[in-house]
Amino acid sequence: MMENLKAASFDFRKDTVDMIMSGKGGHIGGDMSVMDILIELYFEQMNISPENMDSPERDRFVMSKGHAVEALYTVLAHKGFFPLEDVIDRFSKFGSPYIGHPNNKLPGIEMNSGSLGHGLPVSVGMALAGKMDRRDYRVYVVMGDGELAEGSVWEGFMSAGHYGLDNLCAVVDFNGLQISGFTKDVMTHENLAEQIRSFGWNVEEADGHDYDSLRKVFSDAEKTKGKPTAIIAHTVKGYGSAVMENKAGWHHHLPTEEEYNQIIRDFAERKEAQ
Asked: pTM here?
């Protein structure tokens, strides 16, 4: 376990930006918004490691918003699934397994993802299988708020509620932006919590950059019986540097050298403040 996850998160963010610079592209804004959620899951919540990744009792994780794969690769590398230097050097290069969306040929990745709307329905299947096989593992899936416009997401909400899958936890990285602008303008999510509750879910809300807040809602999810839990994690796209924060243009953007240098300085200052 890392003692100061918040401080470490800015080192993880730097690694992710270095990966994007090396690969000459990546979904940097969503990487920054989802990073704290992934760190909390992998280092505090989930029973998953390189040592038990083939065990039928391991927890399952699906990165439904697969375009934020760079953050996932960084967290998996720090967890020991593959060397950090390898993924930074080889990301998005010809012949590399570290491609621009999750690749289940790599250790620690359960499924290929990135076609938005698929992760929750597949996770429902994983959770239902766990119930049928009488196994104790939990299933976690992270989605983007823009992804909620996909109809298959709502079929997943409906079926998980119907089957009472209390071993399933869905996290919405709610950063308010998608590639084409603010989600409230593209496809509004007013009363999202009540909408999901109407499908038979427990719904929690959290500050997606506050580890105490995340820890509480994940604990509540594990204690909730008879229904699945959705966590609406309120985040900031591009979190960590004012250069990127809350700007739709940073959904997929390769920083200039000047932008890169300022971003790294911002990370260092915020780390120092922790």
From this structure: 0.95
